[in-house]
Amino acid sequence: MNKQRPGKGIGWCDFTWNPVKGLCPVGCWYCYARAMYKRFKLPPEREFILNNSDYIDDYSNKLKLASGTKVFICSTFEIFHPSVKKEWRDIIFLIIEKNPDIIFQILTKMPENIDRPMPDNVWLGVSVTGEDEILDIFTLDALRDTKAKVKFVSYEPMLDWIGWPMFNFDWLIIGRLTGYGHKNDPPRYRLEKLIKEAAENNVPIFLKNNLKEIWGGKLIQEFPNASL
What we know:
By secondary structure, the chain is an alpha/beta fold. It has one domain (about 10-215): Alpha-Beta Horseshoe (pyruvate-formate lyase- activating enzyme). Helix content is about 25%, strand content about 15%. It contains six helices and ten strands. The protein has helices at about 30-40, 55-60, 85-95, 135-145, 190-200, 210-215; strands at about 1-5, 15, 20, 45-50, 70-75, 105-110, 120-130, 150-155, 170-175, 205. The longest helix is centred in the C-terminal third of the chain and has 13 residues, at about 190-200. The chain is globular.
């Protein structure tokens, strides 16, 4: 697992865990993981690192993290992509279920492919950007239909406005596009509008650190009030 440092990395998790390696086939043009694979010339072939059953039990038994630790699963690969075998997900969810005191965060662009109800220690989220509003609406509707104790929306990168309510979920994360200059930065008034609507609907909101220059003041970085 990789530890997230304050002010660095993803920000809303404590650790990232990537049991599926390789170049993500979704192919988002802004994907930081694809840029990382290209920069460091990493092998693009898909690989699952938990195939050995002895290792699975050993890994689960040694996963000694404090209760409430937040672990983001598959931060560099779409866990519900058809190329990820169901038996791979079975193993991942087995480890999740063996560690009920840890919060496992799953973020997907393909909620229509979710093949199971989520354990109570999973926070399930979808990623939207505003670049394709019809697709974003479909994605939000699909999340609404899933079974999970905590459902959240990651509005990152925030490329355009989404005229669709995101406040009947449990958490909203917002971030800007990085690595491409500032031409796609969201205007501050749109952040203000989202924050106002979130407050009116009692939805915690998390502004990522990459919004600090746009926001200007102390960033709002709230989390769902969800007990394990």
